[in-house]
Amino acid sequence: MVKSNAYEDSTCDDLRGKEVSDFYFIMKFGKTTMSQFQQDGEWRRRDSAVKRGQLSIPSDQGNAIEVRALRSSISDAGSLMHNLSLSPSFQDRRGSRNSFGMALPIPKSPRSSRLSGSRDPASLKRDVLASQIQDMAKEKVEAAKNMAFAFDIDGVLVHGSKLIPEAARVMEVLNGDNELGIKLPYILLTNGGGKTESARVDELSGILKSPISTDQFIQSHTPMQALSEYYDTVLVCGGEGFKVRQVAEDYGFKTVVHTKDIQAWDPTISPWSKLSDEERKQAKIRDFDNLNFDAIMVFADSRDYQTDMQIIIDLLLSENGRLKTKAKNPLANQIPIYFSQGDLVFPTEHALPRLTQGAFRIAIESQYKTLTGGDLERVIYGKPELATYKYADTVIQQWMKEIHNEHTLPKNIYMIGDNPQSDICGGNMYGWNTCLVRTGVFKGGDNDINNPANFGVFANVLEAVQAAVKKELGQEFKLKWQDEEVNPVLQPGGVSAIE
């Protein structure tokens, strides 16, 4: 059997007639190509498309697009992907690699909005007045529709469950409390996760005192829902309780196994960890002796490092993803593993940033290398990975249609974050305007040395939004709606502002 990295730069033509695992072929060229490989001409068409840099559709339903993830930035499709670092210091995450040489599928299907359709009379009145003002200021309106914001959450809008005070005012301004009464498009783009999008949106709406829709919200694992068309049986871990199991099931994975399910089935698999009575009740035990896992999904921070690491390592070293087996050559037969994000630390209510999923991944990589002598093949989603930004484009476009009935992508997008190695690095590489705030991870000087924010460094999110709005809409643009300055069409004797 050919080792997975032996043909890293191979084309379909190179591999024709050689013994290559189905897994490697699918990860390199896509599931559709594998099924059609024996058909004359098809493999040539696919390879040619890859070399031309075309992003093909790995689904007959057309609900995903591919973004190639590479080992090396100098490979043919290197311009389509930037990658996370293996360096624990994370000083420069731009020069390293994502593994598998695979295509990362991204969901494109729209989601149902979670915003309420009911409006109070005062809001309806302001909408009417705002419509008239906007009719008289078409140039400013077009400029407003041609800008958008992407916010990190932790360290920018909130600290854990606590609101950063300036964030509430930002939500008011973007939701129409400005001189045009216009909604400015924005999305929330976080490396957090571990629960369903709807559950997290409900929490944030309460903290921010502003309605947030699932249509404008992206968690680190949100784009991973597209992987459900490739894998049936998956191991999931991370987050509180069994919530990530519900996440994976909602994404469409057919057989979802939580690490605690396995621990309940065989407690000896993690000798120093004990399940609570409630965890035993929620665990779904089945015949794991005869179950082959297709992939491993780390959706959020592990709450039980020992158990999660042990089971993950067991499967990475297994024969065909079956527990209690050991592959003769694990480097050639490793099942795929996906991490939802790569941050090493994140801000909390604690005085100093805390370790997060990146630290967990580094530990697994180190264990795997010690046990096998080879590097762990893995794929990372989240910021600053290109797959996340490609997906963000589709979400912004959908949100533009929701609030302005225009399915367009604004030209001027501002990424506001607190982490230079994820928020700013990714935004810079994707061509967004980047704003670094001092309310989270970043505690440096004038700007970050390795990943400087190209639009500037600000004390908080409100200052960043104010600077961006005034740049795009003019220094005199007012970030406050003034009823008294509007032609009072709804007052007795009033004359319409658009007559």
UniProtKB/TrEMBL annotation:
<dbReference type="InterPro" id="IPR036412">
    <property type="entry name" value="HAD-like_sf"/>
</dbReference>
<dbReference type="GO" id="GO:0046474">
    <property type="term" value="P:glycerophospholipid biosynthetic process"/>
</dbReference>
<feature type="region of interest" description="Disordered">
    <location>
        <begin position="86"/>
        <end position="123"/>
    </location>
</feature>
<dbReference type="GO" id="GO:0005739">
    <property type="term" value="C:mitochondrion"/>
</dbReference>
<protein>
    <submittedName>
        <fullName>Phosphatidyl synthase</fullName>
    </submittedName>
</protein>
<dbReference type="Pfam" id="PF13242">
    <property type="entry name" value="Hydrolase_like"/>
</dbReference>
<dbReference type="InterPro" id="IPR050324">
    <property type="entry name" value="CDP-alcohol_PTase-I"/>
</dbReference>
<dbReference type="Pfam" id="PF13344">
    <property type="entry name" value="Hydrolase_6"/>
</dbReference>
<dbReference type="InterPro" id="IPR023214">
    <property type="entry name" value="HAD_sf"/>
</dbReference>
<dbReference type="InterPro" id="IPR006353">
    <property type="entry name" value="HAD-SF_hydro_IIA_CECR5"/>
</dbReference>
<dbReference type="InterPro" id="IPR006357">
    <property type="entry name" value="HAD-SF_hydro_IIA"/>
</dbReference>
